[in-house]
Amino acid sequence: MQVLRIRRRMFTVLLTIISTLAVGATGLFLLSLTAERPTNLGVQDGRLAACPSSPNCVSTQAEDRDHWIAPISVTSTVQPPIEVLAEIVRSFPRTTIVEQSNHYLRAEFRSRLFRFCDDVEFFFEDESDRIHLRSASRVGHSDMGVNRDRMEKIRRRFAEMTVRADAESPNVNFHLRQTMPMMTVSR
């Protein structure tokens, strides 16, 4: 009798925990589906949109160190830099290219489990031969470093692809360098 009562209580607690987790997971999934595409994306006066105050965004044009990430500097390439980036972006799972031109690329990356969307932008600036980039989560506060890690992975793949292209085309004068321009850090 006592054992039966303990088992029922354990079953009730376990069922409550499972139900709570299921409701929470369903809520997160629905939240990810209802998040609308931001209207402030794109290049305005040579700049990508500013990062929000939350830590789930990185940008080469951020004015604080927490959000800042180095741009990629390109002196010359065999293939236009945005085309190289588009090829890299297409290699990632759950990714959609939303907009592409000669100087701009915008893509959406979705997380595996809850399908949260991150908006990613690249802007090739002719005057400085730099690729500016921005990656931001649409919902939530923290991304546990996912946006920064993804952009660093894209940077490495870009370097690998352009170096390989240079090796295959020895007549092309090419080199890639990461630049870390002087910046004023505001806190």
Q: Which fold name fills CATH's third level, the topology?
A: TATA-Binding Protein
Helix content: 25-40%
- Top CATH class: Alpha Beta
Mean pLDDT, to the nearest integer, reads 81
Q: Structural class of the helix and strand makeup?
A: alpha+beta
Strand-residue proportion: 15-25%
- Calculate the terminal CA-CA distance, rounded to whole Å: 64 Å
Whole-number tally of structural domains: 1
Order of helices and strands: HEEHEEEEHE
Q: Spans with pLDDT under 50 lasting ≥5 residues?
A: 27-32, 171-187
Major sheet description: 7 strands, antiparallel
**Morphology:** elongated
How would you describe what is shown here?
By secondary structure, the protein is an alpha+beta fold. It has one domain (35-178): TATA-Binding Protein (2-Layer Sandwich), CATH 3.30.310.200. The protein contains three helices and seven strands; from the N terminus they run H-E-E-H-E-E-E-E-H-E. Strands 1, 2, 3, 4, 5, 6 and 7 form a seven-stranded antiparallel beta sheet that branches. The longest helix has 33 residues, at 2-34.
